[in-house]
Every structure is written in C-alpha cells, then in structure tokens.
Amino acid sequence: MRTQRLGTVLTVINFVLFLLLLTQARPLVAQNVAPVLRGRALEIVDNQGRVRASITVEPAVTMNSRTYPETVLLRLTDPKRGPVVKLTASEEGSALGLSDDAEGGVQIFARNMGSFVKVVSKEGRTRLIKP
Fold it and tell me: Of 127, 50, 53, whose CA–CA distance to 83 is shortest?
C-alpha cells in the first residue's frame, strides 16, 4: 500500500513538472542564421553521391595561344551523359549551352565581340544565327 502511494505521488509530481515545461516552451527559431553562403564552389549531389549541379569559378587559362578570362560556371548534369546545361559569365560576356540526347544542342552567346546563336543537330550540322 505504501509503495502504491509513493508511485502515485511520483506520477503526480512528474505530471506537474511536465506541465510546467510545456507552459515555458518557446517556439524553436533558428539562431545565428548566416546572411550569405560563401565559398569557392558549390556542388549538389544525388542519392548515389554523383554531382548533379555545380557552381565554380574557373581560373584564367591560356590554350592554343589564346587567353581565356576567369569564368563563373553553372553546370547541370544528367547522371548518364554529363553536363546538359552550362551557363557561363566572364569579363568577355556570357553563354548558355543546352544539350540534347545526342551530340546536338543550342548555344547562345552574348559577348563583347558580338552575340549569336549556334545550333548543332544530332547529325552534326551546324547553323549560326547572327543579328
């Protein structure tokens, strides 16, 4: 009988403490939210760990005696074929590339040398459209 009373008293005390905690609970709010995400690159991966999207800053390079400026590059990739969307920006201008299922695709260039659209068919035929 005495053990039963002790159990009842402890249960009542626990219930009162629980109610006190509930009344003092505040809504959970994120603290110290960083206003900016900073880094040199960003990669988004799928469930298998494959990079599906990336934003990088590519350094200036010289290839075939031509110097290409530093470029910001956004890539969206298909897990089987690689990049299917590329968006670039540099001091020379910008470009958007969209690839199809084969080797074809569309590229849109807006550069300081002039703007144009390049369309490549699956068969490899190329068409340039200039203003």
Answer: 53
Q: Considering the domain boundaries, does residue 27 fall inside one?
A: no
Tens-digit pLDDT profile for residues 1-13: 677 887 888 888 8
| 69 in a structural domain | yes
Angstrom distance (rounded) from CA 85 to CA 122: 17
Is 10 part of any domain? no
CA distance linking residue 107 with residue 98, whole number of Å? 6
Check: pTM over 0.90? Answer yes or no.
no
Cα–Cα distance between 44 and 58 in angstroms, integer? 18
73: containing domain: 41-129
Cα–Cα distances in angstroms (integers) from residue 37 to residues 44, 49, 56, in the given order: 14, 22, 14
What is the number of structural domains in the chain? 1
Concatenated DSSP letters for 71-122?
Answer: EEEEEEEETTTEEEEEEEEETTEEEEEEE-SSS-EEEEEEETTEEEEEEE-T
- pLDDT tens profile 64-77: 999 989 999 999 98
36 located within any domain: no
